[in-house]
Amino acid sequence: MRSVRAFWVRCFVVLLGCCTVGCGLVRNAIQEDRRSSHELPAFTHEPGSWRTEAVRMRDGVELSTRIFLPKGVERAPVVLIRNPYDLGPFIDLTCDLFVRYGLGCVLQDVRGRMASGGEWWPLMNEVSDGQDTLRWLVGQPFVDGNIALYGMSYLGGTALAAMTGELPVEVRTVVVSVFGTDLREVVSERGHLPHELLTAWAAFMPGRQGTRASAGKAYRKMLEHRPHLEADVAATGAPLPFYREWLNALEPGGGLWRRPETEALRRMPERLPVPMLLVGGFDDPFLPATLRTWESLASRDRSVMVLGPWNHVGAQSGAVKTPGIKDDMNQWGFTIPWLRHALQGVPLPYEAGRVVVAGHGDSGARVLPTWPPATREQVFFLDTAPAGGAPGACASASLGAQPPAASASLTYRYDPAEPWRSEGGARGLAFAMLGRQGITPGPVVQTWPCARQDVLRFVGPAAESDMRIAGRARLRLRVRSSAEDTAFVAKLVDVDAEGRALHVTDGAATLRLPLADTLEPLPYALGSEREVEIDFYPASWVLAKGHRLGLWVSSSNYPMLSAHLNTARPWYEETTPVVAAQTVELGGGEGASRLLLPVELPGGIP
Length: 606
Known about the structure:
The protein is built from 15 helices and 23 strands.
């Protein structure tokens, strides 16, 4: 047995080494698979050889920059990629695909990572370094006068940051996947930090070095440590200044949002002169930022956005799969034609100024003028009356079209030491970086037992026909609490005839930050009534005929979001959690607690 295992280990090492040195057979097989599976045209060139230069930034720091051109080509249109990840041969394969279509590729290690000099501080150096790199690139003899910027995730962030300045005329387009320019909602959900995104990423990317094994251990330590403000030292042995800045940016007015780099990135789309190809996923933590980028994009009539039921790595996870689409965060079927059109003048095989959308429950992709499409607001009132005929073992209250006839309330006990553990959703990245230690994103089956006393469950009537939820649902709750500050978390679920519930979307609010536009934390008087409005994560979901919409209200969604400790101090400074009695006032009339659901109109016509 040991000899067999050793044989396969040697085979893996040989294959990895072959990929690393650019083994032609392996590269060709990978690229042919990409070409055929994404229905791309025939390759036009053969790849040449890599060469490396040190590019000096304005402050003297040198960034390692590799250049890859098609074989026998001295001048070519060029795609710039600025990368923070030690991905070995995998990122090289992206460049390898580009050069097979006659495009040069420039791949740069960002400041403080891999072979580049300087100190690592996520995103803050990418504005100036990206602009400096563009200025260097336009003067290079191997560039034929046409440049594109390209990137996925953080690499997309570097591309967007480089576009914030006065663009050289040579820049023709930018292609970005699963990222956006306004990061306020990505970093903070009404004062909650998305642990599965930012804490996991900080553990994975603390500095120049780091391994997946040590990242998993560091992430667990960071989650367990109190006060969380010092979790970086406990996990990595040293402060992570960028992570502490994120923590201090959880409330409006944090220093991160006043930085000129952050403001320049946020404002970039409204003055972008070149078209953009933008790719987002409904189960991706950067979806709100992606949508805001599209909404404010000055060149939107010449741009394209592609939205699918994907998580951050371009895969469909969970119990629902959408057929007829390609799962890949690169979306090569859109990206390669887009780059060839912008840089080489090849006709574009699809129409610009459109949104290509495939949501959960769709039978394929649709082409729309905008997203979300035209919707009507369907109102569901929360009622203590039992949900008649609701399937499943858990007793549920009801969601109805009419407000309760009389005032009523429901109460539960929230203990931060025993938070409701996340099952599905869109805010996670740990699953990709840390493997099984991360929460699986997407429409995951909900398994929390009925016996838990910290969840209020409401279920609506069976749908008489298929109903598509498109956009952001909102939940208005009238609440009371015995805590100085606390959270209210809500989740929408799809309940089938057997009572199986799938995660659809979720959201959170706090007493101190009750509304999306609350500019400063509001003090709260113990036991007083306050209305909070929860803005759910954007969703595209088909509730099938016969299925029921479920609404679950609690006070935690951990570790997709940090657990509120029920004190007035910021949770990341607190060491001692407090148990709270939470009350939801259902009421009657216009002030009744209610769910506002955006339902797509037939044909999208108002």
